[in-house]
Amino acid sequence: MADRPDGGGKARSQVHNPTLSRISGIATPGWCLHHPGSPRWGDGDGRARDRTLSCVIQVEELRKTYGRVDALAGVTFAVGTGEFVAVMGPSGSGKSTLLQCAAGLERPTSGRVRLAGVEVGELDETGLAALRRERIGFVFQAYNLLPALDVADNITLPLRLAGRPFERRQAAEAAARVGMADRLTHRPAELSGGQQQRVALARALITTPEVIFADEPTGALDTRSARQVLELLRDLVDRSGQTVVMVTHDPVAASYAHRIVFLADGRLAGQIDAPSPELVAERMTKLGDW
Ligand SMILES: Nc1ncnc2c1ncn2[C@@H]1O[C@H](COP(=O)(O)OP(=O)(O)OP(=O)(O)O)[C@@H](O)[C@H]1O
Ligand SMILES: [Mg+2]
Fold first, then answer.
1. For all residues of the chain together, what is the average pLDDT?
2. Coil, strand or helix at 63
3. Domains and their CATH numbers in the chain
4. Ligand 1 atom at minimal distance to the Cα of residue 89
5. Which residues form the ABC transporter domain (predicted)?
6. Whose CA is closest to atom 24 on ligand 1?
């Protein structure tokens, strides 16, 4: 486990997923539900604040089966608007599957997902694509950058797909936020894994999405870049009220979140509020092999 100021991690196995897709459709205005979780968290400047929030994500009895594998075996939880939640669990415990189902990238075998006020199961593919495009940012475990596009074009791709006007300056600003300002004209193949990961994050943030799902966003980063990314994610929550759900294997990375949800064998296996790296590491050892 790294010290928090040196937060970071190792390169991890990659999972493929489809990237950004079709245009059009609509997103409906929101459900407003109260978070059933614990009552308070720190708000970044030391004060506690009330966690009586509307929920931006609710998953209910979520199951996802691949052949004989129960990737998710009945997961129910909610994430409040403006909350930063880390998802942890052993390899194969269903973390990526949970993120992809919660983000509307995968259809669950059964169960419900409400995301940004929308009952995801009721959307057709066009509606789903619109929801993802307009309200959601997703950082894939495998980055999923388009190899033929340079960094600037990869970052602004969601804006282009959405038909939103933009200037190249926006790509430069987004790249600068993740320390990639000097690589705008490079292709993904000319970048290291960690650099690609940061470009993928910049791409996910370019539309200012309400909810950011990030699957091991620091997995390939050195400790300094990892800290930069984690501070950026925390800042989005603290300053902009955006919601972040992040998968990580690193207790230090997880300690940037308000709350950690643990998965084991496709099921929830507990949670920690206001996590410290030490507490997380202790809980991880109790969950068995990682
Ligand atoms: N497309 C797929 N087809 C078949 N099985 C799959 C597929 N995607 C995931 N699985 C299986 O579902 C289970 C959960 O996979 P998932 O990728 O969600 O795990 P994870 O917790 O993200 O693991 P890691 O930490 O290694 O990324 C695993 O047993 C995996 O083999
Ligand atoms: Mg995964």
1. 83
2. strand
3. 55-288 (3.40.50.300)
4. 21
5. 57-290
6. 91
